Amino acid sequence: MSFETHSSIQHLLLDPVSHEIMVDAVNLNCGHTVSQKTADVCLQKGLPCPIDQTHAVSSYVPSLMIRQLVQSAAHPVPPLPAHKSLEAIERLMSGQQLLIAEMANLAAELKTSRAEHQVFKRRYETDQIRQEMQLQLIKHLVHPLEKEELKRYFGEELQVLRSFSDITQILFWPCPIWSDKATVSGLTEVMQQCPNLTTLRMSWCQSFADEDLEVMVGCFSNPDAHSSWKTSHLRHLDLSNCQRVTNVGLFIIGQNFPNLQRLILNGCTQINDGGIQIFSYNMGGSSNCPYMQILGLSETQITDQALRYIVRFCPDLHTLDLSHCKQITDVGVICIAEAYRENLRNLHLEGCHQATDASLPAIARNCPNLKEIHWRDTQISPAAIRTLIARFPHVCSFPPPPLISSMAFGKAKWETYFGDVGEEPPFPPHIDEILASSCPYDPGKTVGETHMLVLVPATVNGRPLTPNSLGELMKTPRGGGYATQYQKIYPSILEKYGNISSRESHWVLMTRDVLPGTRDKSFKDQCALLGGFREYRVLTLVEAITCVGMEYVVSGNRLYGENPWTVTRCEEDIEISEIWGGKYQASVGGFGVAGLHVSYFGDSENSGLAGSWKFVR
Predict the structure, then answer these.
(1) Which of 21, 336, 465, 585 is most buried, taking the most CB atoms under 10 A from its CB?
(2) 7-77+85-115 has which fold?
(3) Domain topology for 144-317
(4) What is the pTM of this model?
């Protein structure tokens, strides 16, 4: 190609190596312009830029502007007048200067981009090395731990530990895989490596104190600290039995852990109302502790006043542990019930000695979603708990109230062993309190331990329950019951009382042995002694046979047995016209392998008197 152009721009169109017109001009990665042929040679032979001899040639792009200039020079327009030609040359030179400036800017940007790329590449390679080192460290640390131990230290959710970012919980401290970091500074170092940590359990760390909380907070609140973990990340903090944590520590927690949902301070015995007040104020502020849901304050020194602070600043609380807070009274419990209402799920009151039945109606009225109530070692009665459960059957009681139906021989057991007894009368009023009360003749035991509660039905399978029918029933119990019979039943008793039944079904609470001091005494003296024991009365014949017989059917245990020989006198009497003649009380006992005696006995060591409550509707 041959053409003429102005000498001032002609050099721009020539290749710096071949000095030929650059019909195929390209821009190198360093910003200089050469022919594509020259660029290909540099790439193939690994030569540097032929203009600056510095930058390696790694790529190129077509130079559209130079190519356009070459095309324009190859097809010149008709010559212009001199003044017009000069103006055109000046415009062309001005455009070329702009082009050069633009190309210089592009070259600078490309250079900056290459530098940033190198920085990114080095950072990526450094991160890869760091992750590989961390993985090797984790393998070294965790390898000795069994899978169950891994769960124990870091929670059930952690199946595989690939990096410290996988750790969301530290459940035991000091953790054995960081045995060299048992101090609080070591803990903060570990926390810095775990950006996703939300749960920290420090329970039973006897050395952990307020100062340690301050050090921990200082590490993460320092603006110069380059840590991806912040105190605002923590959701669950367990400091149970850290007895050196006081109200000061609670103040630090309140100021620096704004997103806590669960705080356990059980066993922090130096915390009192003052600590709860400053904690609630700092945690609440304008947002009133919107995230706090579970609070454990067992064995602290708080009173009802602390509960007023809590209900004010922690509106969404659903679980509260007040176990062994001995200054909490019914006033505080009622405050909790009326404040949290439907929110309340779990309430722990074990050892709150001043909590009584008076607080239960407020819970029953306001807390329909309650799931658990713990009431051991309080003044709350089993009857009150049973009333609460009757209203809300989904409530779990710890401990459960005594299941009267399981210890009593009632309708269910009659049907299991013998048949239908008709309608079962309700349990006696306040039977829980009676069974839990001290035994009147053995104060070291409860009534429930020394008595048996038995339903004496009017009929069984439509037939009246009498001494005669009882004798037949006990021979053939169903459902795996123990069978027995009368070893002896005195004819006169059989004749006079054999077909006498109770007029209505009723409950009887009978002593499991004769009352102390009633042996070898007249029936009159025995009754006088019986009168000294609360509401005791003398059993009827059918009641005594039923209670002793049903105990054996269920358990195989022979009460009123042969060693020592023991019988209890009943209210029925018979006339004896034999050698000793006179009136005697019918007696039940002497229960041996051969069966039960129903007879009469004089005043002797064998004859005593059982006590009983009779409960009728």
Answers:
(1) 336
(2) Herpes Virus-1 (3.30.40)
(3) 3.80.10
(4) 0.51
